């Protein structure tokens, strides 16, 4: 029987936090890339593309993330992929993030005055150039606060991947708890670590919001 | 690739799925009522209470908003018994959901209270209403009207998040799905069907809330 001191618990938890951080970054970057693709469809001129993107967003925002993770975890092997918790976690969170990010950016695109598009067209830019040079930079700039806010949500959402067996912070803490029988300390520390990760971002989002409101 | 989908098990599973859905609905109804009441009190306390109360409410809101719901749930269900507070899974789930939702809706209700013009309060005082009457009859209804769409979204999000209380063996929809897939060996189909039920529930819940809002607050929400 190994004795766990408080520092052993804390050290192990902090060590496991890197997986939570890594997963958050991977899902945020992946979600950003897929999210831009969905955004293109969502603001496209073709009706089927807009329909598809709205349906995609409604699907991911209208079902629990846990179900999405389960469907990834059990669904991908049926398509012949060998799947591990890490892959299912990254893919599940990527699609989840893409739907939210696309919707946030779409609100940014909608908020721009019609004249921005017209000005781009009158400069002789074609559609992709207009998006790349005029519309998207502005849309990204005005949606920075909600994007950071969503990042906080995403970091918290990584805790759910413990349920499909990914060894991040919460799953490690379950194991530690089973060995130490000190749930109050263990889960208290886990909450504290998540708080330390999220709170600065929350404050940053708030300052961005305040700055945007002042402008 | 020779996997073929099989939904033959669905007929025998309808009862379990319906029971699970009923539990999910039960949880969200209780949470909505308790969470809204708490958040109105907390938002009012944060604006008019003594400094210690304001600080306590701020800490509560920040702690809940910056930690995952699943960790809060585990802390309440597994952690509190070491303080001698032992809770039934359903009670723990309702407590965790209510505390979680109230933290978010406290901010929302607060924004609504701030949005009511000062003149409304002054006019009510001028008519001789007592402070509590001013709050309950004049300020609160207008605030709720403003924030109704945001409140609706938060309730739907909470309903979807309630799926994780399956982890402490509350027999709601996800828990029933876990049990079913263990029996049918059809995890993909099972979770697919249940995900679609959640989608349906979230659409219906939104409709119902919008309907209730229109009738009681004449809130013009889509």
UniProtKB/TrEMBL annotation, chain A:
It is a multi-pass membrane protein. GO terms for molecular function: transmembrane transporter activity. Keywords: Cell membrane, Membrane, Transmembrane, Transmembrane helix, Transport. The keyword Chaperone does not apply. It comes from the Bacteria. It is found in: Cell inner membrane; Cell membrane. GO terms for biological process: amino acid transport. One of its GO terms (cellular component) is ATP-binding cassette (ABC) transporter complex. Pfam families: BPD_transp_1 (PF00528). PROSITE patterns: ABC_TM1. The chain crosses the membrane at residues 20-41, 53-74, 86-105, 141-164, 184-202. Belongs to the binding-protein-dependent transport system permease family. HisMQ subfamily. This is Amino acid ABC transporter permease. The lineage of its organism: Bacteria, Pseudomonadati, Pseudomonadota, Alphaproteobacteria, Hyphomicrobiales.
UniProtKB/TrEMBL annotation, chain B:
It is a multi-pass membrane protein. Keywords: Cell membrane, Membrane, Transmembrane, Transmembrane helix, Transport. It comes from the Bacteria. InterPro entries: AA_ABC_transptr_permease_3TM, ArtM/GltK/GlnP/TcyL/YhdX-like, MetI-like, MetI-like_sf. The keyword Transmembrane helix applies. Pfam families: BPD_transp_1 (PF00528). GO terms for cellular component: ATP-binding cassette (ABC) transporter complex. Its main location: membrane. Belongs to the binding-protein-dependent transport system permease family. HisMQ subfamily. This is Amino acid ABC transporter permease.
């Amino acid at each position: 029987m190994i004795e766990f001191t408080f520092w052993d618990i804390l050290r192990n938890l902090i060590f496991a936090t890197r997986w939570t951080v890594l997963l958050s970054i991977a899902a945020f970057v992946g979600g950003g890339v897929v999210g831009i693709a969905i955004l293109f469809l969502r603001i496209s001129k073709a009706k089927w593309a807009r329909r598809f993107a709205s349906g995609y967003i409604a699907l991911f925002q209208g079902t629990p993330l846990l179900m999405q993770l389960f469907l990834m975890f059990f669904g991908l092997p049926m398509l012949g992929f060998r799947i591990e918790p890490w892959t299912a976690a990254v893919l599940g969170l990527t699609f989840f993030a893409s739907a939210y990010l696309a919707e946030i950016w779409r609100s940014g695109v909608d908020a721009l005055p019609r004249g921005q598009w017209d000005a781009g067209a009158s400069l002789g830019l074609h559609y992709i150039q207009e998006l790349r040079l005029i519309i998207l930079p502005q849309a990204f700039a005005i949606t920075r606060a909600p994007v950071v806010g969503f990042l906080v949500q995403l970091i918290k959402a990584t805790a759910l991947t413990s349920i499909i067996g990914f060894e991040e912070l919460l799953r490690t803490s379950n194991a530690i708890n089973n060995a130490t029988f000190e749930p109050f300390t263990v889960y208290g520390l886990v909450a504290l670590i998540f708080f330390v990760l999220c709170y600065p971002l929350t404050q940053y989002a708030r300052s961005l919001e305040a700055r945007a409101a002042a402008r | 690739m020779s996997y073929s989908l099989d939904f033959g098990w669905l007929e025998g599973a309808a009862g379990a799925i319906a029971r699970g859905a009923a539990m999910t609905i039960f949880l969200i109804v209780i949470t909505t009522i308790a969470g809204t009441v708490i958040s109105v009190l907390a938002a009012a306390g944060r604006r008019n209470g003594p400094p210690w109360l304001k600080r306590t409410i701020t800490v509560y809101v920040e702690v809940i908003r910056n930690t995952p719901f699943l960790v809060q749930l585990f802390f309440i269900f597994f952690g509190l018994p070491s303080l001698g507070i032992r809770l039934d899974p359903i009670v723990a789930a309702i407590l965790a959901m209510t505390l979680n939702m109230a933290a978010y809706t406290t901010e929302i209700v607060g924004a609504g209270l701030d949005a009511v013009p000062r003149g409304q309060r002054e006019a009510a005082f001028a008519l001789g209403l007592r402070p509590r009457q001013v709050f309950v009859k004049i300020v609160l209804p207008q605030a709720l009207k403003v924030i109704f769409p945001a409140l609706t979204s938060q309730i739907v999000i909470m309903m979807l998040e309630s799926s994780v209380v399956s982890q402490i063996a509350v027999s709601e929809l996800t828990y029933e799905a876990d049990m079913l897939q263990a029996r049918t060996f059809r995890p993909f189909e099972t979770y697919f069907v249940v995900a679609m039920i959640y989608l349906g529930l979230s659409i219906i819940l939104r409709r119902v809330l919008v309907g209730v809002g229109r009738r009681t607050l004449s809130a013009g929400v889509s």
